[in-house]
Structures are given as structure tokens and as C-alpha cells.
């Protein structure tokens, strides 16, 4: 496990998950390669995340809007940018957005961030525009208009590429893990409870990483397992790994204020209920 000792001089970030959409009913086999074909009861929540330290703000992923929700039968609660506004963050002023990967539920609504620079792994842009997209299996979770939008932002000088691990600010770094997509990156954030890893789709649910039961939308299963190891290594404990889509996140972590109940939770404080 990573040690927080030696990082005490780094000022911690506040860290939040904002829930903007939901998918239910959903069967077990949609979330686990070895899941039961018929058994229901494995819904997904959809989140964007934000790390804030004074005036410094990093938004992690941009989610999707109502059109994508309608096209894919998801329940859409709010625009991710409106979720940020609930925390007093003006999306038009956000300077840095991390795209963990380019699937439709993580890289839509780029237009909500007109002043932002988008941070992406080299391997993800190559994957989303290369030969794997000849196959519907790999193409399906992408929305081509999102990819075109990323390319337009690239040509406008607003994309920064990373290859592997990179620190964007003291206490804030991105780490390539791949697996779910070729270029998936996770984000490690220094908080007052230590190092928290926003795993995004390195593990959709707690059960994927806990049970070694991988999610079936996958580029490389071996890399996905290796990603579980990397997440654990980067986080201070298993309670410091935040999965990308687990409805339990909303139960385990507290809302920052009563009016944000069911919409936003704080990830920089210990979970109300332990992971195990
Ligand atoms: Zn996802």
C-alpha cells in the first residue's frame, strides 16, 4: 500500500463524485464476464468527479447528455456541468478536464467546457481512431460524434497527451492502466484521508475488483486484472479505490450538504460503511 507519509506538506484536494445518470434494470451478465445470464439486480450509476483545492479545479470525465441517454436507454438526471454548478464550480471557467477514456459515458458534453484543456492518454486516441474500431464489439461503447469533437479540440490546440503516469499538480496524477479500453487512465488524488484513486472503469463495481470478476466490455482482460493491482498499489487502502459505476458509492460516502443528498458525495472523507 502507498504511504501518505512524506506528503503531509502537500495541501489536500477536496474530492467529489457527482451522479448524473443511472441504468436499471440490468442483468448480472452485463456487468460480469462470468455473471448469470438471467439474473437481474446489477444497476449502474454514472458519475463525473471533481478535485478542488482552493481555486484549482480538475474535472474528471464529462459524462453524457440527454440525447445519448435516450439513444441507449439510460435514465438521465442532469447535465454533468449542472452537477458542477451545484458545487459552486462554473464549468466555463474550468481549465483542466481529465478524460479517463473516450467511451460515450465519459467523454460527451465537451462543449460544456469551452475553456478547458483535455488530458488524454496517447493509447486512447490511437485506439478510438484505429483498427479496433473496425469491429462493432469495440466500437459500440463509443459515440463517433464525441470522437470527432475530441479531434476538433485537438486541432484547436486544446488536448494534452500523456503516456503512462504523469503528475499534473502536486498531489494529482494520472496513470495509464488500459484493460477496459487500450488507453484507460486512473487518477490518483491526495486528500485529507490520504491517496484516493478515482478508478473510473478500471473497475466499474466494487465486485469487479473484489471478486476478480471482470466487466465484459473489455479490450484486454489481462490488462484489466493488472489494472486492479495498480489501483490497489496507488491507493492507501481498498477503501481508497473508487469504482466508476457502483451505486454503493452513493451509500458509502456522505453528501457534502443535505440539499445534495443523492446527487453528490464526498470522497475525501472515509466511507460511512467500510467496503467489507
Ligand atoms: Zn463507463
Indicate the overall shape. Answer: globular
Number of strands: 13
CATH topology: Metallo-beta-lactamase, Chain A
SSE arrangement, N to C: EEEHEHEEHHHEEEEEHHEHE
Largest sheet: 8 strands, mixed
Share of β-strand residues = 25-35%
Structural class: alpha/beta
Q: Low-confidence segments, ≥5 residues, pLDDT <50?
A: none
Measured between the Cα atoms of the first and last residue, the distance is 17 Å
Number of helices: 8
Radius of gyration: 17 Å
Number of domains: 1
Reading off the top of the CATH hierarchy, the class is best stated as Alpha Beta
Helix content, binned percent: 10-25%
Describe this protein's structure.
- Strands 1, 2, 3, 4, 5, 6, 7 and 13 form an eight-stranded mixed beta sheet that branches.
- A hairpin with a 2-residue loop joins strand 2 and strand 3.
- The protein contains eight helices and 13 strands.
- The protein is an alpha/beta fold and 276 residues long.
- The chain has one domain: Metallo-beta-lactamase, Chain A (4-Layer Sandwich), CATH 3.60.15.
- It is globular.
- The structure holds zinc ion (ZN).
